[in-house]
Each structure stands twice: as structure tokens, then as C-alpha cells.
Amino acid sequence: MGIPSKAGMPTRATFIFRPKKRREGPVERLLIGLRDFAIEKVVSRTPPVFEVRWTGKNACPHCACDNLRVKDSFWRTIRNISIHGRASRLLVRCHKYRCESCGRYFNTRLAGIKVWSRTTELLKHNIFQAYNKGVTCKEIADEHRIGVASVERYYHQMMQHKSSHWANRTCPRILGIDEHRFTRRQGFATTFCDLARRRVFDVVKGRSAADMRDFLQSLQGRHKVKVVCIDMNSAYRRLVREWFPNARIVADRFHVIRLVNQHFSELCKAIDEKPLAHGRGGMMRLLLTRRDRLTDSQKERLRTYFADRPDIESLYEFLHDTADLLRVRAQSVDSCRKYVAELLKKIDQLRKTSFAPLRTLGKTLHNWREEVARMFRFTRNNGITEGFHREMKLIQRRAYGFRNFENYRLRVRVLCC
């Protein structure tokens, strides 16, 4: 039996085979990595193109009603993750709906794909991971058959998404503050590090309280900060006292011992200029090396040198006694009293000496005696912060430098946590 055509002539009946609709299975999740999608057919193998069908439930995004009416249909082409090194595409038939409850119109919402986006979130995440591993933008763009600008845009979107989770964070209980150079033109930036969780809390441009006033005012939970570790910087000490009123300031152990070594080496070079000031034989390095790390041959060299210079030997013993005292940490309250008394005694000896470098050292330690004394009780230091500064340099090197500080800040907050 024929079916009449528009011209009135009989034509042969056409039968169309429509396969039974499949539900999502493990094959779909294995190939395309998305849930609530069923593969209808393979359109192309090189490059891989799949015609897929959305199997999830549709509901109005405004009122959550599922009483919908289809007004129109259209095809969407979606970029997806690569399969065996070849960029894949998905063809999805979507619909334009009208909600019978609220009367609003909307298109099909697909899981794992944002509205008006032509790329899956899974692909953006893969690009983000490859970028962090050091793969160049050109290599990523060639693999996924997209432009270099698209790679940068997707990477920036993922960083903003990850950074948005920390928008309303409260200040950590143990905070480390230190500065590092951002660029030669724009100067320094200040790093706020969560020493308890070993991650960067935030990075702020500038290193004075005036430069960071807006940032400090926006911080939540400043009164909850209990300990702040800084180097011997008076500007940071004033900043902590003003903006973190309940925090105890602890001097960074490394910077304190380095300050002692600097003044000691300056005095030794002034006393014995010929072998020490010109660096002959590495004697200055031996004088600054910890006594418990010297080898037998090095100890013999020092004994031979001290036989001719007994004045430097007395300075050497005083230096290392002071340095060993400053390395004491994690003591009880009763033990701290004994060490604090010994520290104050050495500071008085330094202030009363006739050598100018040691008097300067004694004056500095006297001005910071409270912060230095707290090192006996607390174990935290800015070694974690300095380690993150090295990682920040690698971030700048990988990006060939930054001009926009906010882009640099965004990357640091995401990658150094």
C-alpha cells in the first residue's frame, strides 16, 4: 500500500527503525566521563564525535516544577576530554522549555556543563591540572584543538572557582608574616601564611600598614589570632599590635641567629683583617659553623688559629653560647623563666661591651627582648613562609613574570594551599 505524495502519485512506504533508548551505563562514564548521558551513536572516529542523549531529569530552575512543555529543539556541540590523545566532541540534542507553573522559558540544564558554555567542566579541570604540571599552553591547545587564549581563559576560570571557596575565611590562629619582592617596578608584597595548616592565607601588595589598610580592615576574626611570627621588622611589629590586639609576637629564630652571626663576623673581620676579611682558607666559615657539626680536622684548625688569636677565641665561645641559647624551644613555663634570665644577662653583657658591633647587637636584642624570649616557649617560625616564597618564584618564572598583581595573587592562593 503506497502513501500518496504531494503530487498525488503513490510512493513506497518507508519504515524507520528506532532503537530502544538506552540508559546511562559504565561505558558512557568510561568514555566521556559525564553522568546522566547515554551514547546514541558514534558520528566520527577521527576525531571522536559522539551523539549523546541527556538522561537526567528536567525541572524549572526558577520554581523547581517538572510540568514542562517543549517549545523548540536544537543541537549543542560540546568540547570534552581527549580520548587516546584525540580531542573529542559531544553532540547533544537540547530543548527549549516553558514552565507551566511560572510561565518562564529555559533551556536544558546539563550536568557538568555550565549554561551557555561549549566546554565541559571536566575538560577545564584537566587543562588546569596539566597547566600546573608545567605543560605549555601551546601543547595543551594542540591536544584539545582549541586556541591558546581559550586555555588561559579556562585556567583563569578554574582558579576563580577554586579561590571563591576562601572568600569569607577567618584569620588563622597562628600567623606568619614576611615580605618578598613582586617585581622591580612594583616593589614588595607581604605574605600571610597559616603556619598551623602549612598554607598561604593571602598575599597583599605593599609592606606597610598604610598599603595594607583596606585588606586588614576586611579580615574576619582578627581577634582570634593568638601567635604571629615575624622577622625583626619594626613596621610589622606595629602592624600586629594595631590590627591583631590579642596576638603574641614571636621573633623568627633564623633571623635572630643570623643577626648574631652578622655582628660577630663584622667584629672578627675588624680584629683580624688579613685572614678573615678577605676570606682566605675559609676560616670565617669555620667560626660560624655550629660546634656540634665540626669535624675533627676542622676542630684542629680552630685550635691552631686560637693559639695565635685568644681574643677571637673568647668571642667565639660567647657567640656559640648565645646561639645555643637561642635554639632552645618548646619549654615549659618554669623552664622558660630560667632561659629568659640567662638571655637578659647576655643582653646586658652585650650592651656594656666596648666593641661597637656587639653594642649594636645588644641594643637590638634589648628592643626585641620580649619577642625573642617567646621563642623558648613556641616552636613556630617563618621557615614555612620562606619555603612558599621559593614556590612563588617558580610560579612567576613559569608565567614569565606578572604585571597584574591580582592575577599573581589568584595563582598563589590556589597553588600554595
UniProtKB/TrEMBL annotation:
- Domain of life (superkingdom): Bacteria
**InterPro entries (UniProt xref):** Transpos_ISL3, Transposase_DDE
Q: Where are the transmembrane segments?
A: none
Alphabetical list of Pfam families matching this protein: DDE_Tnp_ISL3
**What residue range is the signal peptide?**
none
The Transposase IS204/IS1001/IS1096/IS1165 DDE domain extends over 175-412
Protein name as annotated: ISL3 family transposase
* Native source organism of the sequence: Desulfovibrio desulfuricans
What is the taxonomic lineage of the source species? Bacteria, Pseudomonadati, Thermodesulfobacteriota, Desulfovibrionia, Desulfovibrionales
